[in-house]
């Protein structure tokens, strides 16, 4: 198959060829970036929270005028009496719930070496074990590690950080015994856990999603009204239902937060609800765009077959086989798609740069380009197949007909 005659034919139909090539270029740019966005969303939805989600639920109350010590005493007593409850503890936040304490930290007392913005989980006695955190360095919190809160965290305490945060703060070094500061507050690393996702995700991008610090705290002033319940997975829904009723009865002056008083699994589903919807929309956009592109190719190829019917008959009369005609239209389509994807590569990275600047998305990995190109080549060959088969079926006798 000689390419020169095909290119000559395409030059005679510049406008139609250009329009299809531009459509394919746009499809390439949208396809690659949309697939990357979908993969990013799916990756976020499968983040390892680090906790035993199947066994945990949260009860959250709102009470501005309550005595924190008295509120904790009444609610903890009521929740512990529920059949099936394995443990109840006070905690300021849980993964996928409302965040309660993020702040910037520094690696020196003078606050000259920033370490980033991290999430401070404050947990009362028993909460570390209840969460089911996987301790990979250090020892479990002991009784004397729990400190009273000065504000939303203790002013000086031993803390447990995630492996991701340790690798960020002290790459390649042993984090145990290391120190960091939050303004005048001082903390020492007593242990490292494998994972602990931030409640509201990583504000600095995917790499910060596990920049979490667990601080042992004594329930009381500044630390009340949020309770972590652990139960067997099969009885967790029943325990949660009873816990809601018990909390309202024990503290009638407080208001139960229905949206946050759920199992961790339900909080995860609610947290990623918009991501699921966005993924569905992007899949729909990709499908619609590929359909429109395929229809454009089919329409153009069908038009050219009808326009060249007598020319095809002449070629058949001169000895061209049906396979030759089929190969001609497939090669022609391959060249048009190739021109489109070359321009599409430029548009793809242009669109990705705009998304990076506007929405803080990471750079598009280069391997998305060959995947998009192969997909469009395959789409082009499938779309042109039916018109090409019709062209190949044109009999040689057409060449002898006169208009």
Automatic annotation (TrEMBL):
Topology of the protein relative to the lipid bilayer: Multi-pass membrane protein
- Asked if the record carries the keyword Ribosomal protein, the reply is no
User: Any transmembrane segments, and where?
Assistant: 281-306, 333-355, 367-386
Would you say which domain of life the source belongs to? Bacteria
Domain ABC3 transporter permease C-terminal per the UniProt entry, residue ranges: 285-395
Please indicate if the UniProt record lists Transmembrane helix as a keyword. Answer: yes
Location in or out of the cell: Cell membrane
**Keywords tagged on the record:** Cell membrane, Membrane, Transmembrane, Transmembrane helix
Per the database record, which ranges form the MacB-like periplasmic core domain? 71-257
A Pfam family annotated for this UniProt entry: MacB_PCD
UniProt family annotation:
Belongs to the ABC-4 integral membrane protein family.
Return the protein name: ABC transporter permease
Q: Which organism is it from?
A: Dyella nitratireducens
Lineage summary: Bacteria, Pseudomonadati, Pseudomonadota, Gammaproteobacteria, Lysobacterales
